[in-house]
Structure formats: structure tokens, C-alpha cells
Amino acid sequence: MIIVLIGVLGLIFGSFVNALVWRLHEQAKLAGKKGKQADKKRQALSIARGRSMCPNCQHILSTKDLVPVISWLWLRGRCRYCAARIPDSPLVELTTGVLFAVSYALWPHSYHGLGLFQLVLWLGMLVLFVALAVYDMRWFLLPDRLVLPLGLLAGLQAIVAALWTQDWRQLYMTLLSAGIIFGLFWLLYQLSKGAWIGGGDVKLAAPLGLIVAGPAYAFLMIFLASLLGTIASVPLLARGKQGFGKHIPFGPYLLAATVIVVLCGGQLAAWYQQLLLR
Fold this sequence. Notes:
This protein is mainly α. Helices cover 71% and strands 0% of the residues.
């Protein structure tokens, strides 16, 4: 029952992610523009105060238009008021809901005390994960306005865990993990002048290193991200949809790999050790 409720909570936050990503992109397009019309549009696009609206006709949406997944299916992906196709995808809502439910089911820590605090923070970070992945897939960009809050949550988790357990060695390993990934990505970015990896990936590396909280898990995350990226890219290359010289967003694979490491890293490490012993 708890898993179902958390999954529903994830659907609601997934709907928020759709709105968040669109608003951030529209706000970015207004950067540098002045005048009453631009200010009025900024106010309408405010994440905290702006009301949900159709991205085409800007009609304010009612509650019945905002039910996750169901409203999209009922309206067949179109606006109730202008009949234009809605760019939001119910897959974002479904993905967030599944991630919430799976995270609770596979949570490797306790469900009380520090473990519960970490779980709540993790769910908040998942919302940012999905938003970053969607933004990167749509516009090949990982905006600072999403990366910075993720870094703050990851840093908060590391500090609270260290204070709670008085395990300062683990804090050192967490910081080392962030430093390793950031340093490696920064080096790749500098050597390739941005051809191998994007600047947004470099910025994202540090928070993800804090989240996986260990050098071994950091390298496992990089390996899994590369593997997922390769698996996803091969069919596109085979069908000619993605040339070898074209940019492929790496952020979603880094984020997916981080989810796997956080929820299943211990089991993967144990399996690998048993494989070596054989």
C-alpha cells in the first residue's frame, strides 16, 4: 500500500517536472529582454506563483486538466481549449512514479532515523534527476538552475550523514568520490575541447559523486553510464538517426546509472566480488 501511495506521489511530482522543464526553458528565452510584456510573461512563468497553462494558447488549466496521465489520455494529448497538441509526455509522469515506487521498494537503508531522512532527500533528488534528463534530451543542456539545487541536496545529505553517524571517514570518501568524477570529466572536457563531454556533464559530476558516496561506486556509475549510453546509441547509429559526429546527451545516462548504483550498488559490488573469486 505504501509503495502504491509513493508511486502516486511520484506521478504528481512527474506532472510538476513537465511544467518545471517547460517554464525553465521559456524563462531562459526571456533572458536579457526588457519591457512590460517581458516582465508580464516572466510573472506568468514563475515556478512559485505562476498557474498551470497551455503552452500554446496560454489558457489557465483547471484541476480536471491536471490529473497525471489520465488527463493526457482523456484529451488525447491535446489542449481542451485550443485543441493544439501538448508537448508534455505522460512518460515523464510514469517514469517519476515508477522511480519513486522502486526507490522505496529497493531502499538499501533503514526506513527510520537517518535512513528515512535520506529517503526523503533521495525522492527530492529524483525529481531533479528526471527534470535534468528531460531537459538534456530536449535541448542538449543541463541548466545550472537544476544542477545547483541537486548539489545542495547532495551536500546536505553528506553533511547530515556525517554528523549523525560521526563517521568522518565516510565524509572524506564522499568528497573524494565527487572530486574523482569531477576531475575526470573536467580533464576529458579540456582534452576534447567539449567534443567528448559537455560542460553541463562536468558540473553534474560533482553532485552525482556526492550522491554515490564512494570512489568505487563512482567508477561503477561511470562504467554503467557508458554502457547504457552505448546500448542506447547503437540502434540509432544502425538506423542512421544519429551520425558519429553528432552530439548525444550523456546526462540521462549518468543519472540513470546513479539511480542503479544508489539502489543496487551493494548487490552489484557483491556479485562482482563473487565473480572474481570464482
